[in-house]
Amino acid sequence: MVVSYLLLAKSIHHSSFIIHHSSFILKLIFFVTFHKKEKLIVHTIYYMEKILSVKNLTKKFKRVVVNNISFDVERGNVYGLLGPNGSGKSTTFGMLLSTINPTSGDWFWFGQKGTTPETLKKIGAIIEQPNFYPYLSAETNLKIVAEIKGTPFSRIDEVLNTVKLLERKKDTFKTFSLGMKQRLAIASALLNNPEVLILDEPTNGLDPEGIIQIREIIGTIAKQGITIIIASHLLDEIEKICSHVIVLKEGNAIYSGLVDEITSNQGFFELKADNNTALLSALEELQWFTSVTADGELIKAQVRDDASISASALNQKLTEKGIFLSHLAKKKQSLENQFLELVKNTN
């Protein structure tokens, strides 16, 4: 949404104010300055509102599980906490929700230190397997959760519709598939109309259809302006769902930033020629690549980050050297490949 104002006034020479709504991704600050013709012109500055700031957070049990991690979460984005099992994802969530005491470090929700009862009212979270009464209906189970949260029953149909379970609201929980149970859990986390939704491995154990349904639901929720933080070891899902990613390795945060930036390398070429030995030698002589390797019948050439080379330009260069290609394709490294390379190169 683009907002512009032209205000008329005689007495106000300078002022500033903030317009904010939970559905806005951006907070708007308007600086009002006096104009010669008694018009006040509003200058708008956009910035992303920081809703979570983690500073040097550490947790030790018998060993260090989370080691001095720091990252920020800005409103309206979908963040992925990415790492293999045992990397500290669930422990991090536990500390941020005050179910696990940290060894050291701080975090700030909405500018307030720690996690207070008032803060928890703004957060919906699923950090364990869905746990509902098996012989009660989806609707009745959500009524119990609504009573605990102090949420009106009118929200129940809304959240069931969001997770595509409205038509099954009278069915008992025990008749639900694993994917439907997970969707009902998400519905329960949405009952209090949270500003932040935390999901720990939301697609774990689901079949491909269930994964796609969860992905679509997360997209729907994100469009409502709710900030989402997802812990997952599934790189493909993080790449498809998230705008930002925090990569954990053995409790250390080794990357924090945009998903697009971690995959923004120049990519690589796949090539094949009648004489792959000559092709390999020719590619190694060029200055455009960081590595050139044989992969079966194909040659893979990784493009340098500071190089910009098109497929047609590479083909022309090789033709000049007497090498004629039968296959040439430029590809982008997936998040999975980038993640593996990042983990391998981080001590």
Would you write up a description of this structure?
- The protein has 347 residues and is an alpha+beta fold.
- The protein has three domains: 6-48, no CATH class; 50-262, Rossmann fold, CATH 3.40.50.300; 268-331, Alpha-Beta Plaits (2-Layer Sandwich), CATH 3.30.70.
- The protein is 30% helix and 34% strand.
- It has eleven helices and 18 strands.
- It has helices at 89-96, 117-120, 138-149, 154-162, 178-190, 208-223, 235-241, 259-262, 276-285, 311-320, 335-344, and strands spanning 6-8, 14-19, 26-34, 39-48, 50-60, 64-74, 78-82, 104-109, 112-113, 123-126, 196-200, 227-232, 244-249, 252-258, 268-273, 289-295, 298-303, 325-331.
- The strands form four sheets. Strands 10-11-12-7-13-14 form a six-stranded mixed β-sheet, sandwiched between helices. A four-stranded antiparallel β-sheet has the order 1-4-3-2, with no helix packed on it. A four-stranded antiparallel β-sheet has the order 16-17-15-18, covered by helices on one side.
- A hairpin with a 4-residue loop joins strand 3 and strand 4 (39-48).
- Helix 3 crosses helix 4 and helix 4 packs across helix 5 (178-190).
- The chain is elongated and about 75 Å long.
- 30% of the residues are buried.
- Mean pLDDT is 83; it is low at 1-47.
* N- and C-termini, Cα separation: 44 Å
- Give the proportion of residues in helices: 25-40%
CATH architecture identity of the largest domain: 3-Layer(aba) Sandwich
Average pLDDT reading: 83
Rg, rounded, reads: 26 Å
Low-pLDDT windows of residues: 1-47
- Reading off the top of the CATH hierarchy, the class of the largest domain is best stated as Alpha Beta
